[in-house]
Amino acid sequence: MASSVHPVQSLLARLKLRHLRVIQALGELHTAAKVATHFHVSPAAVSKTLAEVEEIVGVPLFERGHRGMRPTEIGKEMLASAAIVLGQLSRMAESLHALREGTRGQLSMAFRTTSVQALIAQAICSFRELHPRVDITLVEGGVLDLIAQLDEGALDLMFAYDDPRFEHAALQRAPMIAQQPLLVVASVAHPLLQRKRLTAQDLCEQQWCLPVPGARMLHHLQAAFHALGVPPPEMGVRVSDVSMTIKLMQTAPFLAVFPQHSAAQLEQEGVARVLPFKLDRQIESVVAVWNGALAPRAAAKAFRDFVLQA
């Protein structure tokens, strides 16, 4: 007599949490020996667990080679699903811990643009007045690293310029700031501020705080000057950090480029002044990004809704 149990239900009944943890670790560490060290078990135990999973699934999940294990196409699909399941379990554990300890949960977010920092700083302060026991963490990192953290559930929310790399099945986006013009700003005592008319060549002859190679702002700066028929600025200091750019501009006469929102904030704080020169260049819109495949932590969803409504 044929079994009445559906194959999917049978597979789910046999898969254990330890299976998913070992599969995920193999995807990251690539060898049974490293996974065994990570979990404080023997390599034989790791190999046995992998064999169990592959027997349950019915196909190989990893290819064995001289450089370790690499996931097959089905293995990659299982790794992606395992990351979601384990991430969701981690969030459930955090929520239960928060309830037990009497806190109100956790929230982690990251920024890849200064355009929204003033807005988010105000939102954080207002949110903390309503939810004083929420543990808020601000993290740093490159875009790909932060996307990986969103995938894993370690990061709740990211604010960044819109990017094709966010076109990911699990990621959701909401607009924060529309496209904005790129502006040239100068140190407050810069001699160019005394001139009534400026040319692109005048700007090229100045000392700049230039974006580093590969930076989004460098691409926009170069494209803007090429459109004016002038080689882009090359004299000055290449800086990857906005705070150092500000320090340099406070110390000596430098020029720099900033999106309109950031430039307005620098003017308001008396750090720099916008030059009366038009660069025909728009910066991508700023978006909020989160992992829609994971049920959000309560604090993270509350803050996201709070910001988007504001």
Automatic annotation (TrEMBL):
The answer on whether this UniProt entry bears the keyword RNA-binding reads: no
Q: Which UniProt keywords apply?
A: DNA-binding, Transcription, Transcription regulation
Q: Where is the HTH lysR-type domain?
A: 15-72
Has the keyword Zinc-finger been applied to this entry?
no
* SUPFAM superfamilies given in the database record: Periplasmic binding protein-like II, Winged helix' DNA-binding domain
Which PANTHER family does the record match to this protein?
HTH-TYPE TRANSCRIPTIONAL REGULATOR YBHD, NITROGEN ASSIMILATION TRANSCRIPTIONAL ACTIVATOR-RELATED
Protein family (similarity comment): Belongs to the LysR transcriptional regulatory family.
The protein, known as: LysR family transcriptional regulator
Lineage, top ranks: Bacteria, Pseudomonadati, Pseudomonadota, Betaproteobacteria, Burkholderiales
